[in-house]
TrEMBL record:
Keywords recorded for this protein, A-Z: 2Fe-2S, Dioxygenase, Iron, Iron-sulfur, Metal-binding, Oxidoreductase
Name this protein carries in UniProt: Aromatic ring-hydroxylating dioxygenase subunit alpha
Known cofactor(s): Fe cation
Origin species: Methylobrevis albus
Domain of life of the source: Bacteria
Pfam families: Rieske (PF00355), Ring_hydroxyl_A (PF00848)
Higher taxonomy: Bacteria, Pseudomonadati, Pseudomonadota, Alphaproteobacteria, Hyphomicrobiales
Gene3D superfamilies, alphabetized: Naphthalene 1,2-dioxygenase Alpha Subunit, Chain A, domain 1, Rieske [2Fe-2S] iron-sulphur domain
Rieske domain mapped to chain residues: 47-151
N-terminal signal peptide: none
MF term (GO), any: 2 iron, 2 sulfur cluster binding
Length: 421
């Protein structure tokens, strides 16, 4: 019998069944959404962008995480800092544009002026007793992982970011993301809870029937499979794929490109996963014709056939890094039933549009895939509203990583409400 002293969230956490999808309130409840924002998005490292978003001194970018607005700036010494986007006078929003360039940060309301280091430089009519040193912008923790930008709104951010960074830096460094530029970016508002967007990303069970553009250079065996259902030819192909992955990992690592799988999706506060995987046939990249989208390769790469490195972070990002370009994805919750998916395509900073690449070719695969996934997320969210919905079993072959995302999420929520599971 349910202990009536428990909150609804505590009861849901205690009866969560591993290996099954979450109960409907996790996706629908405004109260649980509010708890998600407090427990997850206000306490963990959130991926928000890339250093090329703020490439030059004075460049600024605004990111909204729920009701909290953060401005990320490039200082004159080329360091990247972040502040709450709130004037210390009467709380007006300080920077209004998504991206801009500034000399100083000036509030439009009463012209309080802050340096790029957050110090208050000018505040008229405040009297002789006013101490400007006590009214600088409130800082936000920001970290760059080889050019990927993460912020944490908590005063006490998870310390294991350093563990992730130490393991991931060698994987990311060859791509030299700081020497790229954002060639294109787009936002999609998906009609579903943020967890459904993340769950959809954590599996490719659905890929073969829904993503014709994405799957052309991918091995079907990479999506997962049920060994007991394979015929002799299927077993031979699965074995060939496994050998190909092993052989490529060895060759890539010998060339200075770490490749083997590292997975900590549900056993770390700052959960993550990475692996470099081969592309099928003569494929070079995630493009419609599977050839490189950009003729000028990234970083230390001189062979376009260098596979694709993926990197996932809990709670809100995934990334794909090829020899010729990179694609980053962040999910930012808007409300219980809508989520912002922000995608950025990066190419070498010296690549020339129309000469080395075209935006249409660069973005075609993931633009189509994002649109398809948004539809699928909407299907799941609509289904969760039905009284007939109940948690269904995950495939032990193709949805293991979805389960690990849910394990991580429920574990973090259990920690938030102070219960063991």
């Amino acid at each position: 019998m349910l202990d009536r002293t428990q909150t609804p969230l505590e009861a849901l956490i205690r009866r969560r069944r591993p290996g099954y999808s979450l109960e409907a309130p996790f996706y629908l409840s405004p109260e649980i959404f509010a708890a998600d924002m407090e427990a997850i998005f206000h306490r963990h490292w959130i991926f928000v962008g890339v250093e090329p978003d703020v490439a030059e001194p004075g460049d600024a970018m605004v990111v909204d995480i729920g009701t909290t607005s953060v401005v990320i700036v490039r200082d004159d010494d080329m360091s990247v800092t972040a502040f709450h986007n709130v004037c210390r006078h009467r709380g007006a929003r300080l920077v209004h544009d998504y991206k801009t360039s500034v000399g100083n940060l000036v509030c439009r309301y009463h012209a309080w002026t802050y340096g790029l280091d957050g110090k208050l430089l000018y505040a008229e009519h405040m009297g002789p007793e006013f101490d400007a040193g006590c009214h600088g912008l409130k800082p936000v923790h920001v970290r760059s992982l080889e050019g990927l930008l993460f912020v944490c709104l908590s005063d006490d951010p998870p310390a294991d970011f350093d563990v992730m960074a130490a393991q991931m830096a060698p994987y990311l460094a060859p791509h030299e993301l700081r020497n790229t530029k954002v060639a294109f970016e787009m936002d999609i508002v998906e009609p579903g809870n943020w967890k459904l967007t993340m769950e959809n990303n954590r599996e490719c069970y659905h890929c073969a029937g829904n993503h014709p553009e994405l799957t052309v250079p991918l091995f079907a065996e990479g999506f997962g499979f049920a060994p007991e259902q394979l015929d002799e030819a299927g077993r031979a192909q699965a074995e060939r794929y496994a050998c190909l992955v092993t052989d490529n990992h060895g060759a890539w690592e010998a060339s200075g490109f770490p490749s083997r799988c590292i997975e900590h999706l549900d056993d770390m506060v700052t959960g993550f996963r990475t692996e470099r995987l081969p592309l099928d046939g003569d494929a070079e990249s995630h493009t419609l014709d599977t050839k490189s989208a950009c003729r000028k390769l990234l970083g230390r790469f001189n062979d376009p056939k260098s596979g694709a490195l993926h990197f996932w972070t809990q709670p809100n990002s995934w990334h794909h890094f090829m020899a010729d370009h990179a694609v980053t994805f962040s999910v930012l919750p808007l409300d219980a039933e809508h989520s912002l998916l922000r995608t950025k395509w990066l190419v070498h900073k010296d690549a020339v549009e129309g000469v080395d690449y075209t935006v249409e070719n660069l973005k075609a695969v993931w633009e189509a895939t994002n649109d398809q996934d948004s539809t699928l997320v909407g299907y799941c969210h609509s289904g969760a509203r039905s009284p007939a919905y109940e948690p269904g079993p995950y495939s032990p072959h193709t949805e293991v990583l979805v389960d690990r995302f849910c394990n991580w999420y429920v574990g973090r929520m259990a920690d938030y409400v102070g219960i063991g599971r």
